[in-house]
Write a structure and sequence with these properties.
The protein has one helix and four strands; from the N terminus they run H-E-E-E-E. It is of the alpha+beta class. The protein has one domain. Strands 1-2-3-4 form a four-stranded antiparallel beta sheet. The radius of gyration is 31 Å and the shape is rod-shaped. The termini are far apart.
Length: 160
Amino acid sequence: MGERRRTTEAGAALVTVLLLLVALTVLGIAGLATARLDTRIVTSTLGPTTARARAEEGLAWGESSLRRTANWDLLLDPAGWAPLATLDPTMQVSVRDDDDLDGDPGRDTNGVVILRSVGLVGAVGERDASQVVVEAGMRREGFSTYYPQAGGAANTGTGH
């Protein structure tokens, strides 16, 4: 009788060990899946945040570049957005005339232009690629009147 108990107990121990191994394997796979998901979440958050920082950096660079330029008309393109040459391929900065109602998008008559900066992370088509576009109006020193814009908005204040 004693031998039968040992055989039954030995079989039970084997089943218990196998169940523990299966449980630990399942826990390990779940842990790996969670870690992978966490990495994807961080990557999907980091890309747009970095792209926005690059776009804002480009906007600051464009503003500095415009402040050093005596004649903004030389930078404007009558066809629309004119790129400003940056040395950083992760940001694209361009400028265009606002709608100052002079009929010439290649000529600035009211001292206001619009800067656009695009911040890029990753290559287009990549899974984690991000792109953020930021635009801002900029007024030249010495211009105090802002002419009416298309669409009915009018501001004749003297703020800078």
